[in-house]
Design a protein that fits this description.
By secondary structure, the protein is mostly helical. It is built from three helices and no strands.
Protein backbone atom coordinates (compact mmCIF):
# COMPACT_ATOMS: atom_id res chain seq x y z
CA UNK A 1 0.00 0.00 0.00
CA UNK A 2 2.89 2.36 0.72
CA UNK A 3 4.19 1.86 -2.82
CA UNK A 4 0.82 2.99 -4.18
CA UNK A 5 1.01 6.30 -2.31
CA UNK A 6 4.62 6.83 -3.37
CA UNK A 7 3.62 6.32 -7.00
CA UNK A 8 0.69 8.72 -6.58
CA UNK A 9 2.90 11.34 -4.96
CA UNK A 10 5.50 11.00 -7.72
CA UNK A 11 2.82 11.40 -10.39
CA UNK A 12 1.49 14.53 -8.66
CA UNK A 13 5.00 16.03 -8.47
CA UNK A 14 5.64 15.34 -12.13
CA UNK A 15 2.29 16.82 -13.15
CA UNK A 16 3.02 19.95 -11.12
CA UNK A 17 6.45 20.24 -12.77
CA UNK A 18 4.83 19.78 -16.18
CA UNK A 19 2.24 22.49 -15.52
CA UNK A 20 4.89 24.85 -14.17
CA UNK A 21 7.14 24.27 -17.21
CA UNK A 22 4.30 24.85 -19.68
CA UNK A 23 3.34 28.07 -17.89
CA UNK A 24 6.93 29.32 -17.88
CA UNK A 25 7.44 28.56 -21.57
CA UNK A 26 4.18 30.23 -22.52
CA UNK A 27 5.01 33.31 -20.47
CA UNK A 28 8.20 34.03 -22.41
CA UNK A 29 7.99 37.15 -24.55
CA UNK A 30 7.34 36.09 -28.13
CA UNK A 31 10.43 37.89 -29.41
CA UNK A 32 12.69 36.06 -26.98
CA UNK A 33 11.04 32.69 -27.44
CA UNK A 34 10.83 32.61 -31.22
CA UNK A 35 13.65 34.81 -32.43
CA UNK A 36 16.31 34.02 -29.84
CA UNK A 37 15.46 30.52 -28.63
CA UNK A 38 13.49 29.09 -31.54
CA UNK A 39 10.60 28.07 -29.28
CA UNK A 40 7.13 28.45 -30.73
CA UNK A 41 4.13 28.84 -28.38
CA UNK A 42 2.55 25.66 -29.72
CA UNK A 43 5.65 23.68 -28.73
CA UNK A 44 5.35 24.39 -25.00
CA UNK A 45 3.36 21.26 -24.12
CA UNK A 46 5.61 18.92 -26.10
CA UNK A 47 8.77 20.48 -24.67
CA UNK A 48 7.42 20.30 -21.12
CA UNK A 49 6.38 16.67 -21.56
CA UNK A 50 9.83 15.78 -22.86
CA UNK A 51 11.57 17.65 -20.05
CA UNK A 52 9.47 16.19 -17.25
CA UNK A 53 8.55 12.72 -18.47
CA UNK A 54 11.44 12.08 -20.86
CA UNK A 55 9.23 11.26 -23.85
Amino acid sequence: MTRFFETLRDAARRRAAYNRTVAELRSLPIELAVEDLGIFPGDARNMARSAVYGR
